Amino acid sequence: MTRRIVRMAGDGIGPEIMTAAGRVLDAAAEKFRLDLSFQDCLFGGVAVDETGTPFPADTESACKAADAVLLGAVGGPQYDSLPPEQRPEKGLLAMRKALGVYANIRPVRNIPALAGRTAFRDGHLDGVDIVVIRELTGGIYFGAKDRGDDWATDECRYTTSEIERIVRRAGDMARQRKGRVTSVDKSNVLMTSKLWREVTTRVMAEEYPDVTLDHMLVDAMAMKLISSPADFDVIVTENMFGDILTDEASMLVGSIGVLPSASMGDDGPGVFEPIHGSAPDIAGQGKANPIGMIASIAMMLETGLGEPETAAAITAAIDAAIEAGDVTGDLGGALSTDAAADAIARRV
Questions:
Q1: Which domains, and CATH codes, for the chain?
Q2: Alpha carbon distance 301, 284 (integer Å)
Q3: Does the annotation place 78 within a ligand binding site?
Q4: Residue range 163-181, pLDDT digits in tens
Q5: 332: Cβ–Cβ under 8 A, 6 or more apart, which residues?
Q6: Which end of the chain is less congested by CB atoms within 10 angstroms, N or C?
Q7: From residue 11, how far is each of 4, 49, 300 by CA, in Å?
């Protein structure tokens, strides 16, 4: 059976990492005899340049018909002066809504070969293996917005059903792991967080009595994620808190350039992308780290296409390349984007 994959390289370093990572996917597909087809579509700033909108109708149709979507990166300083509805980042919100992907899944695991590149003492990161599940389609990013001459407002809104479905994702994930969920909110201040805590407590008690639940305020979590990262298993939180905490968590690994993510809904294709941005300052220079994109391909194969053996082979190849020092400059190596990807492809 042919699996259809839409590729949206996007902006900045997006095209470089998409092309480089594609060679790893080609090697894996050949080894494991996967039948894959690809369609390249415009998205983000490059789509604004050509069509006037960051998420064109043709791209939306292609994504909805696909089995999985790969995304590189979006945005750049040249788009900062555009009207809000034309900004590349608006394409992300529109895509998530159109595809119904509401759960952003970001794994963070200790990679021993990178421990020396972190700011932590020896042994501090031992046992770190976290999955952050971030709600993706509600909260302040999607709320009503208004602006006057000397004031501005952003509405933060959540419904019971939005919270229930993301909490169930966390409960299901915890059952596959260590059986613990930490829910992060700001219930001492925010009404949306009060609702979040109430709904989370009820859903976990009624539907996941075998999973341990604890609650943590977001400011305390920002501290504990650094001071005691090995204490956590599955972390679930709302949109903005998750956005901030997952970037913080990337420092547990040593570089934001190595972490993948998956955005999933109940039906339709998932969207798989590295958590880093478009890095326009190094675009076109062959300096971009392709590992986050390659790891996102591994997540796509396992989570989106049901190919765990292929995904495991790519993950093992990534770890072996890092251990050997066959990496880009941000990880202390001397390889270009393409050469670093080729080093992983050979190991696959």
A1: 1-100+267-348 (3.40.718.10), 119-252 (3.40.718.10)
A2: 28
A3: yes
A4: 999 999 999 999 999 999 9
A5: 117, 325
A6: N
A7: 22, 11, 21
**Structure-block tokens of residue 251:** 């420092």
Specify the range with the lowest mean pLDDT, choosing from 100-104, 119-123, 263-267, 336-340.
119-123
Whole-angstrom Cα distance, residue 43 to residue 281? 20
CA nearest neighbour of 125 among 228, 203, 269, 224: 228
User: What's the pLDDT tens digit per position in 18-62?
Assistant: 999 999 999 999 999 999 999 999 999 999 999 999 999 999 999
Say whether 147 counts as a known binding-site residue: no
Provide the pairing of β-strand 260-264 with 270-274: antiparallel
Is 233 labeled as ligand-binding?
no
Backbone dihedral region of 100: left (phi > 0), alpha (psi from -120 to 50 degrees) or beta?
left
Give the pLDDT of residue 159. Answer: 97
Confidence band for 267, pLDDT divided at 50, 70 and 90: confident
209 is in an annotated binding site: no
d(CA 168, CA 11): 34
Position with higher pLDDT, 166 vs 267: 166
Q: Is 11 helix (H, G, I), strand (E, B) or coil?
A: coil
Q: Is position 263 annotated in a ligand binding site?
A: no
The catalytic residue positions are 141, 186, 219, 243, 247
Please give the full DSSP string across 103-132, using - where no structure is assigned. EEEEEEE--GGGGGGSSS-TTTTTT-EEEE
Residue type at 125?
L
State what percent of residues in the chain have pLDDT above 90. Answer: 84
* pLDDT greater than 90 at residue 150: yes
CA distance 338 to 285: 11
What is the dihedral angle through the alpha carbons of 239, 244, 250, 254, rounded to the nearest 10 degrees? Answer: 170
Whether 11 has a binding-site annotation, put simply, is no
The tokens for 8 are: 């949206």
